[in-house]
Amino acid sequence: MYKLTRLVTLADPASAPALADDIRALAAAYSVSRQLVAPTLPGSHFGGDLIAHFAFDDAAQCAAFDTALAPLLAVPTVVSVDGVAYQSGAGGRSDPGLANGVYRVLLLSVDEGTDPALVERFEAETRMMPHYIPAIRNWQLSRFDTATGARRWTHVWEQEYADAAGLMGPYMMHPYHWARIDRWFDPECPDHIVDARLCHSFCAMQASVL
Amino acid sequence: MTTGDTAVTPMVHAIDEIVAQPGEGKALLDDYLAHYALGARARGMKLEQILVSPPMWLDDQSNTLTFRWSLAGAGAWWQMRFVGGNDPDVAAWWAEVDVRAVSRRRFFASEPADIEGLCDV
């Protein structure tokens, strides 16, 4: 599966619904396997005002849609776009039928020159989060093919929850997160390899997209 | 963990273990207390213990300095993390320490009795 995610920051967040309608209409004309276009929820951090997330069966379809989408986002009302195009990485689904839940995406940038063995260890530990934190219903950790925005994004960490409380509660407060995984992110920890600038964004979803 | 009917927030610990460059142990300890500890306390950290190994100041070998801080639960931990993690002065401090240290670790822990409460989220 090939995927495209755009986090769109608008000059006026009130214009998000209209832009979302335009993007959905465009997606309907392309071979989009799954799509999620929704305003971000309060608590997002550098996550934009609108999440636009799409999945395709092959890379060509993804690239064609990316090209078609670009003009919609290259308008004065769009302040900035952080985004990635990527092939699906390892994932898991404990609740594939999850409906009316919350989709969350984290864009992160591992420092250039980081030992590849360390990156693999970071990835392996991150992939274990759903094992320790069951509130993560469905998940996927992927490396990027192409990235745009405030950083040279290297990874996308996607999760789905039954509700926002699953993200804000168990995900954030479980010790596997703050006492284990976060050392890769914490500038105070010598193990840190991830740039402090992150895109943490989440929105309501009607059906699972992972 | 409860006392009577009152829930007690499980205490968590942040532990810095710094292996100083040979002969740097005492100066690094003094600087840690003078330059880092004040800000750490303002971020909600309470300095519980300092250990020096071996218990003498070495001038040709490394001393290992261990600092154990406590925080009032995961919420206080995140408060500390958000403030410290976004403070360029804190990052600059650790960059300086890393030059003066052979190695360094920071890790987080709790007492065994608090594990169940910390994982019940």
Number of strands of chain B: 6
Judging by the overall fold, what is the CATH architecture of chain A?
A: 2-Layer Sandwich
- Helix/strand structural class of chain B: alpha+beta
**Biggest sheet of chain B, strands in spatial order?**
4-5-3-6
Provide the structure class of chain A. alpha+beta
Mean pLDDT of chain A: 95
The global form of chain A is globular
CATH class of chain A: Alpha Beta
Strand content of chain A: 25-35%
Q: Which sheet architecture does the biggest sheet of chain B show? A: 4 strands, antiparallel
Q: How many structural domains does the protein architecture of chain B include?
A: 1
List the quaternary state of the chains.
heterodimer
Radius of gyration of chain B: 16 Å
**Helix coverage percent of chain B:** 40-55%
Q: For the report, how would you describe the main beta sheet of chain A?
A: 9 strands, antiparallel
| Element pattern of chain A in H and E | EHEEHEEEHHEEHHE
CA-CA gap between termini of chain A: 10 Å
Tally of DSSP helical segments of chain A: 6
Sequence of secondary-structure elements of chain B: EEEHEEHHEH
Low-confidence stretches of chain B: 1-5
Pfam families (chain A): Dabb
Organism (chain A): Sphingopyxis witflariensis
Domain Stress-response A/B barrel (chain A): 102-202
Protein name (chain A): Stress-response A/B barrel domain-containing protein
